[in-house]
Design goal:
Order of helices and strands: HHHHHHHHHHHHHHHHH
Oligomer: single chain
Strand content: under 5%
Distance between the termini: 93 Å
Radius of gyration: 32 Å
Helix content: 55-70%
Number of helices: 17
Shape: elongated
Length: 373
Amino acid sequence: MKYKTIVDKNEGSLLQIIKAAESFNAGGFLESLRKRNLSTYEIEQLTDEVREYQLKMNREVKALVRFSETFLSSYATENNRCFETAERLFNHIRSTISAARKLLRKTCPRRMGRQPEGKERPLFYLRSTLTIAHTGDLFGIESFEASVQTLFENMTTFFSTVINTLALCHSMIVSESEIRQDADRCMSIYNDTCARLMDEVRQMSRWLESVRQLPESQLLKRKNQARSEKSFARENYHQYTPVELKQMLVLEMVKKGHNDGLTDEEALFWPDDHDQALRVRRVIPLFDQLGAEGMKGKMDSGVIIEFLKWCKVESKLEKQLYQYFCQSYKDQGGRLQTLGWSSVCQVRKDRREQQISDEEQAESFERRLAAIA
């Protein structure tokens, strides 16, 4: 009867391998060396193999730790619909599982008695001499030659890494299951993730430019059909990718904007203030009357700075807002020559050095509007 060598990628297998690694003991280690009758040269070769496994595992553990730091706190992750959590984690620790398999298989008994009919073949992880309790040598590891002691030290570190790695995987599985049952936590993670993605969402107006008709979003459809926002957040945690979530946010904002007569860009610039979007749209054609003409028919950069502050858009979106303004102004027959963005930035820097506040600039533009009303 052969051992079962294929490990199912599930929570049960994680626990079995952890149990095997935790069972590593000095007595089993020495018994394994006796059974294999290894020479000093072979012991040194095996030590080199274990060290090589350790290096691969160390790289993998670092990646896993980085993954664990963001996985549970991200509402959407890559490929999370394609894998169960345990399977996804197994794919992240291929080197660790492979190293443990190679090391433990070498120390399984070569022969095994027949199994009772219908009983599943034992997993080799739990049949290795290394993981079966033995009384050990009377004088302990310290009485053996240096090569044996070195191998034992390396194996101890190796199995400790296996335990810590798989324990982290199991902890993530348990934590994800707990989060799925907690609608409030899912809602909080959903809101935090959406807030982090919002900058990227605003940039997706260019993606919409090439779309004649708004595409369907399965996620948005599920949100609209959900009993409540909390139930939506709980049911769809780790079910969609970041791209799908961003597309949903874009389409949601754009469709709301369309209901109030806004363009795609206007809906993304002012998702929570559609009235401001309409005010900005009405003001752009008035620039020729706002005293915005500078030298040689160029637009006054100071007025531009005041306008950008009056628009009430986040500073990191001001360049995109200025591009929107220039295009709208040109499309509506504006006669002044607009400035390059670098010139606008220089004027903004000068004004900051003069300690002119954002509020003062917005109020100055309000006065310009009142003067032509």
